[in-house]
Amino acid sequence: MLFEALSVIPEVFSPYLETSIMGRALRSGVFEFRAYDLRDWTHDRHRTVDDAPFGGGPGMLMKPAPIFEALDDIGSKGPRPHVVFFSPCGTRFDQRAAERLADKERVLCVCGRYEGIDERVYTLADDVFSIGDYVLTGGELAALVVIDSVVRLLPGALGDEASSVDESFSQDSGLLEYAQYTRPSSYRGMDVPEVLLSGDHGRVAQWRRENAIERTARWRPDLLESARLDPNERARARELMLEGEGD
Ligand code: ADE
C-alpha cells in the first residue's frame, strides 16, 4: 500500500514513520510512503500557498491552485489515489474508516495549515476526516494518526498477526478491551485478579467479558447502546450505568 502526503512541512512525517513498528513495516515493504512539498506547485518568488479570505475575517486560507495542480501531477502517475483531507469539520475518523482505507492501494493525504482551505478544494476529496472535536494547527498530525491506524491493520505490520484483531473497537462485540496484566502478580499493593492466574480458560474468558462491559459502562457508555450484549449482560450494563450516574 502506498501512502502519500502533501504538506507545507513534508519533513515532519519521516521521524515518526521511520521509527519502531511503523519503521519496521516501512522497511519490510508493508507500506510505502512519499511526502510532497506543496510549495513545489507555486509559481511566485515567495512560494505563496495562502491568501486572505473573501468577505474579510482573521487568518489566511490555503489557495486552491497549488493543491489542484499538485493533485493533478501526483495523481497522473500510477493508480488513481484515494484522496483524504483533514478538518475538524470532517466526519469522525474511527476504526471502521481505518479498515475501509486499509483496502485501498494508494491513499493521498492532503494536509491543510493556516485557518483553513478554500472550499473549492474539497471537490477533490474522497474523504474528509476529523480525528476529534478539537482544533489542531494543521492536518499533519491527523494524517499520521490515520496512517498509523491503517498500517497496523496491514498483513505483516505487527509481529503477532492476532494482536490487531482482539482489541477495543475491532471486536464484533462493540465493547472496549478488557484490562490486562503482566508480571509481577502483586505490585505496590495491587494484585492481579486471581482468576487470571488460575489457568482456567473458561473463567478467564468470562472475567474478560464482564470486565469489558464494566470498562465500557464507565468510560464509554455511549458505546453500550450498539454493543452486542445478551439480555443478562444488557441488564448488568444498565445497572453499572445507573451506579456511574451516582458518582
Ligand atoms: N485539522 C485541524 N484540526 C483537526 C482535527 N481535529 N481533525 C482533523 N484535522 C484537523
Describe the structure.
With 247 residues, the protein is of the alpha/beta class. Helix content is 32%, strand content 16%. The chain is built from 7 helices and 9 strands, in the order βααβββαβαββαββαα. Helix 6 (201-219) crosses helix 7 (231-245). The model has no long low-confidence stretch (mean pLDDT 95). The structure holds adenine. Adenine (ADE) binds next to strand 5.
Would you summarize the structure shown here?
32% of the residues lie in helices and 16% in strands.
Backbone CA Rg: 23 Å
C-alpha termini separation? 47 Å
Largest sheet: 5 strands, parallel
Q: Structural class of the helix and strand makeup? A: alpha/beta
Please report the total strand number as a whole number: 9
> Uncertain segments of ≥5 residues (pLDDT<50)?
none
The number of helices is 7
- Strand content bin: 15-25%
Give the SSE string.
EHHEEEHEHEEHEEHH
The helicity comes to 25-40%
Bound molecules: adenine
Average pLDDT for all residues: 95
Main sheet: strand order? 2-1-6-5-7
> Could you say which overall geometry the principal axes of the C-alpha atoms support?
elongated
